[in-house]
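debug: dumping io for the single-chain case to check the tokenizer round-trip. Nothing else runs in this session.
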Amino acid sequence: MTTVLAIAKRVVQQIPACAEVFGTASSRANGFDPATVLSALYHNIETPYTLFPLVSMVGGKPVSSAFAYGWTLDGNEGVEFNGFYVGTSGFMLGPRVWLNVGNWILEGRASTFNAMTEVILHEMGHVYNELQPQGSGGSQIIQYDKGNGKSSENTQLIFRKCFP
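debug: decoded output
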């Protein structure tokens, strides 16, 4: 995961068209820099799945990620959803990303790091959309992309903008 996260940070920092997928110039300059959001969202990814995952705060909302088994993801490489968090301030809802551990292992063995990077960027785009009320600026990723062909459009957008 360390290599993939490093690639993702590099492309959002060095390829302006990639950074522009996430938020607006104003939101990126005011707390929603894609590299920073990537770090917050995926900081705990290598910890085992738990009902109460370690979280980071982005825009005042909890965010987290975890590896999950394929049957929980309905065959998707990754999913983003509003998760339930319990913390010192009580109960909160916030974006959570699950990555399909089976696909991750297969792609890792094949060293398809760009494909793996696309998945984490794609899911981060959904997180940006969820955090729009907090000032993220949204993203160019189509939010509700399950079962309507929009997910592959999102995938192609990431490959076009981030891996020219």
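debug: round-trip ok. Residues 2-162 form one domain.
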